[in-house]
Request: fold
Amino acid sequence: MNAIHLKGGFSPRIAGAPERRLRLLETPRHVGMVPEQIPFIKPRLLVDVGDAVAIGTPLFEDKRNPRIRFLSPGGGRVTRIVFGPRRIIRQIIIALDDDERSDAFDVPKLDRLDTLPRGALVEILLTGGMWPFLRALPFMDLADPDTVPPVIIVRLGDDEPFGPDPVVYLKDRQNRFATGLDLLGKLCDRLVIHITGDKSIRSALPDPTMARHFTGRYPAGNPSVQLFRTKTGPEQNRSWYIDGQDVILLGEYLRTGRYPVQRIVSMGGSLAPAADHVRTRAGVPLRQLCGGDPAGKPAARYIVGGLFTGFGSSPDSFMGFYQNALNLIDDGDREEPFGFIRPGYGKPSYATAFLSSFRRRPFPMDCGQHGEERACINCGTCAKICPVDILPQFTMKCLAADEVEEALAHGLLDCAECGLCTYACPSKIQLREVFRTAKAQYYKEIA
Ligand code: SF4
Ligand code: SF4
Reply:
């Protein structure tokens, strides 16, 4: 197995890492989809309030390519569709029946997979709602079914605080994972598995020689960063990637002919009622995942996904389509009297100016900005920490001056959207958000 050490980055010590314990969550009474958090898609609704749906009934399609459909994660009745400004679809909520129905899909026998042309395999994935799990770099949009990628990266392990541990979600599911890998290998020129963290999981792989083990600080587990460091030609910039847990879903779909709804979700952060893993289902309500509202604690910020790249949510919402993690941290942004003369033993920071740099224990993370909006002080921290060697402060200033070409020359498209620069910036400038928005705008213009 190839071992690759990535330089740069930074691994902050944050409290609330989930343990490998797995518990079972009671079946929810309702589940939901959150289309507004699926990047780039233009959803067209295929159901209405009051409609009966089964697991696997199409709920909406992407107007840009109606062959790509998103299926219902539950069987029951559509009880509510929440719209936002300009009729953006925020949530589709389904009350579950006691005896949920599940649509059956026509999938080939596993030993026939080798005999089918690539186009037929693509159709099988499109029909069963599995296609959206494949995403294309560098914009992280849905993969285009009509193109063949040079490489598909399977991500096993994510070092962003805090995502599900592959050791937990692969346990007893290796057969389904192997089936998913088998299918993916037929869709591309080359399939690679990128392991981050515990390399013992390679024993769960059907062919350990396909694996590369990445070490280093965060974001060594980010597929964009891994590609940036290992690509052998510019054509590989169009590679696709998929998360390890979603490969298991592909395998399950092929083996059962049903849309798979089981998910293993991690709970983390200093306010999580239990930092562990939960066996539950797609679209689970966040409040149920937490066992109610965290009592007797400061107000919690619900972050669906990792702490640096996830999206802020509320207990009334649901797990996202791509996210399998919920992190709860202190939502407060309190003033600290005479903060500038305090030694900062309990203040996490990339800089070594505080006594906290001597502390080994993890720090509880909060949403504090430590002051009002402030300008860039040209400290260079973001450039030092960026894993893809772009100069975030100059790129940001180019974008502020509407000099998009110059931002592209600085490497805007290489930005892995890891969020590390935003975390480390002493002025707390939302660099990641600036780059993410600029990349998305550029993508829409060239599309
Ligand atoms: S510029 Fe992009 S890749 Fe670099 S640290 Fe910031 S978010 Fe990460
Ligand atoms: S870390 Fe923040 S303040 Fe420092 S150079 Fe980068 S953008 Fe400017």
Q: What stands out?
A: Residues 142 and 396 are 26 Å apart (CA to CA). The first strand starts at residue 2 and ends at 6. The chain has a mean pLDDT of 92. Residues 376-382, 392-393, 425-427, 429, 431 surround iron/sulfur cluster (ligand 2) (CB under 6 Å).
